[in-house]
Amino acid sequence: MKNSIKKILDIADRTLYNWKKEGKPIVVLLEKYFTKEDLEEFLETGKIRRLENYDASNADPLFVEYIKFNLVSKIDIIKGKGLIDSFNKYIPNNIFTTILDDLRKEENIELHQRDSKKIFIDRIKGYEASLLEKPSKTQLINLIEKNLSNIECYVLIKYHDEILI
Questions:
Q1: At what angle do helices 83-90 and 61-76 cross, to 10 degrees?
Q2: Both 128 and 90 in a single domain?
Q3: 133/19: higher pLDDT
Q4: ∠ CA 69-78-145 to the nearest 5 degrees?
Q5: Where in the sequence is the domain holding 31, given as residue range(s)?
Q6: I need a labelling partner for 110 at 20 to 30 A (CA). Which of 4, 21, 117, 133 fits?
Q7: CA distance 9 to 97
Q8: Count of structural domains, the chain
Q9: Are residues 139 and 162 in the same domain?
C-alpha cells in the first residue's frame, strides 16, 4: 500500500512518513477508503472500476464538504499556483463564474459525477467571447483535464460560489 500511495502522490519515502506523521488528509483518505488493489488498479488503468458508476448527486454530504474544503488546497500543490490564480491566468474570473453559473442553473442537462468533467470542458470549448482566445481555452481545458477529477468538477460546478470566494 505504501508504495502505491508514493506512486500516486509522486513522493519519496521520507515525504510519505512526514505526511503520515502530520496527519495530512490525503494520506488518511487514501489509507482509510482505498485498498491496495484500488490504488494499483488506478495506477495501471487510470480508473477504479468500483467507483466509475458512482453518482455524486447522491454523495454523502460530508464527502462533498471534504471535497469543497480541499479542492483549492489540492490544486495549490500543482506548480506552486493556486486554483483561482491558474484559472484567472487563462480566463477572466467573471467569464469562468458565468460558465459555472450557467451549468448549475441549466435544467435540460442532468449533471452527474461521471460526466461532469466532460460537460464542463465541452461548455468551455463552446463558450464564445472576444476575451476568451483559443490558446487560453486550450490551456484552461488542459489544466482541468490534468488536475481535476469528475467529482471535483461536479462539486466545483454545484458549489463554486462557496469555493471561489
A1: 70
A2: yes
A3: 19
A4: 85
A5: 1-52
A6: 133
A7: 30
A8: 2
A9: yes
